[in-house]
């Protein structure tokens, strides 16, 4: 398998190339850098199948990307010179101060720059998903539940802001790191979330994105300035969740947590999650990552669905909703509440959110699940139909279709 056929390898290499060129030439030519990186991969796709992949593929790509960058820069200068505007073309501004970094990882340098304080929170997330995770604009739009045009404009504005701020390609000082760490962790969380449950397409799980998020957070726990309790808590959450990935799908079909073969869960990742959760307890602050890690631990350490401590999970969701309220946390809490035997209470709370979350397919799917639990099969079928009318990945749609068919069959029997 080469960088051209391995999604994670391609993603890491593309981010590394982007980082190398931005470090050398500065942020003033960001679009030219991205075009040059794309040119390098196009050249590889044409050359490697014929001549074979080079011994060191990243070195080959780096050389080609540098040449393509300079070619594009010269071509741009010639075009504006023909218009009598040559003085308006910015020259590359090498940033030689970023040759060394305590993290020793180009993608993390890029990650911190994408989370620059001059950017808005939304722009930081979008830019990082584009440049570090190498997601496409449609993928980012699905993940952020935004219009593609809005995401594209956000990216343009973010790059312009960094250029105008003359942002340098360096890891922030130890004093600045805590201020920007929250944004970095938010992006890593979003990256893992897209990998854990793809928001569109034919795949349920995108393991390459999960692995990349896990790798980045692991590195953050190894550097003293970023090895904060909430960093360890996020690592614990990712480990517990990633440990269950092997059992989440049967071919292309979703396997619910209730039905999963727990012998397929990764015991080493669960043990690693326990160690990270212990490390996260060293601070006084209790964050959303602590609460979510507690929930993930309760699931991962339970021998079976019936052994799951649902009351503990509901309490953890209550803490999470106090710290970081979100629609998905509200929905998940109601599922846990129903497992405690409070189906009617869960349905009442769900109905209270109907207007606010009616455009979320997950809301309708949970509605269908709870209506079926209550024996209201016809209403469950209507809810699953509403979920299926909204965008979702192909495996998830198949799962909801099976649930709808089960409700139909149960209604016919009743």
**Spatial order of strands in the largest sheet:** 1-2
Distance between the amino and carboxyl termini = 53 Å
Low-confidence stretches: 79-104
β-strand number? 2
Please bin the fraction of helical residues: 55-70%
Which outline best applies? globular
Element order: H for helix, E for strand? HHHHHHHHHHEEHHHHHHHHH
Mean pLDDT, all residues: 86
What is the number of helical segments per DSSP (H or I, 4+ residues)? 19
Task: Provide the fold topology.
Elements: H1 7-25, H2 30-51, H3 57-82, H4 106-114, H5 121-131, H6 137-144, H7 148-164, H8 177-196, H9 207-221, H10 229-243, E1 249-250, E2 253-254, H11 267-280, H12 288-300, H13 310-323, H14 327-339, H15 343-352, H16 354-357, H17 361-373, H18 377-388, H19 394-413
Helix pairs in contact: 1-2, 1-3, 1-4, 2-3, 5-7, 5-8, 6-7, 8-9, 8-10, 9-10, 10-11, 10-12, 11-12, 12-13, 13-14, 14-15, 14-17, 15-17, 17-18, 17-19, 18-19
Summarize the structure.
With 414 residues, this protein is mainly alpha-helical. The protein has helices spanning 7-25, 30-51, 57-82, 106-114, 121-131, 137-144, 148-164, 177-196, 207-221, 229-243, 267-280, 288-300, 310-323, 327-339, 343-352, 354-357, 361-373, 377-388, 394-413, and strands at residues 249-250, 253-254.
């Amino acid at each position: 398998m080469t960088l051209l056929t391995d999604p994670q390898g391609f993603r890491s290499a593309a981010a590394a190339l982007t980082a190398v060129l931005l470090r050398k030439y500065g942020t003033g030519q960001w679009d030219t850098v991205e075009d040059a990186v794309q040119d390098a991969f196009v050249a590889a796709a044409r050359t490697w199948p014929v001549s074979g992949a080079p011994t060191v593929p990243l070195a080959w790509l780096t050389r080609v990307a540098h040449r393509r960058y300079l070619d594009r820069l010269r071509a741009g200068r010639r075009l504006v010179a023909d218009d009598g505007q040559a003085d308006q073309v910015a020259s590359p501004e090498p940033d030689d101060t970023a040759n060394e970094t305590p993290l020793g990882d180009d993608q993390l340098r890029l990650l911190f720059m994408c989370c620059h304080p001059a950017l808005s929170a939304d722009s930081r997330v979008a830019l990082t998903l584009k440049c570090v995770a190498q997601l496409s604009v449609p993928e980012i739009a699905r993940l952020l539940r935004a219009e593609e045009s809005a995401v594209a404009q956000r990216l343009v504005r973010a790059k312009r802001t960094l250029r105008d701020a003359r942002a340098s390609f360096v890891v922030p000082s130890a004093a600045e790191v805590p201020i920007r760490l929250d944004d970095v962790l938010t992006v890593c969380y979003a990256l893992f979330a897209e990998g854990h449950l793809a928001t569109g397409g034919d795949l349920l799980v995108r393991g390459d994105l999960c692995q990349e998020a896990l790798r980045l957070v692991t590195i953050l726990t190894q550097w003293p300035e970023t090895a904060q309790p909430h960093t360890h808590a996020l690592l614990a959450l990712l480990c517990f969740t990633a440990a269950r990935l092997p059992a989440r799908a049967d071919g292309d079909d979703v396997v619910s947590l209730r039905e999963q073969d727990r012998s397929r869960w990764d015991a080493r990742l669960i043990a690693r999650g326990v160690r990270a959760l212990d490390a996260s307890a060293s601070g006084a602050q209790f964050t959303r990552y602590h609460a979510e890690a507690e929930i993930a631990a309760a699931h991962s350490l339970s021998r079976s669905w019936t052994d799951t401590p649902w009351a503990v999970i509901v309490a953890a969701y209550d803490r999470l909703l106090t710290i970081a309220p979100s629609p998905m946390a509200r929905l998940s809490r109601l599922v846990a509440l129903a497992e405690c035997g409070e189906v009617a209470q869960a349905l009442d709370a769900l109905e209270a959110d109907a207007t606010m979350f009616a455009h979320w397919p997950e809301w309708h799917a949970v509605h269908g699940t709870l209506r079926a639990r209550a024996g209201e099969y016809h209403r469950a079928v209507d809810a699953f139909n509403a979920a299926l009318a909204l965008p979702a990945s192909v495996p998830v749609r198949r799962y909801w279709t099976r649930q709808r068919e089960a409700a139909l069959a149960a209604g016919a029997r009743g």
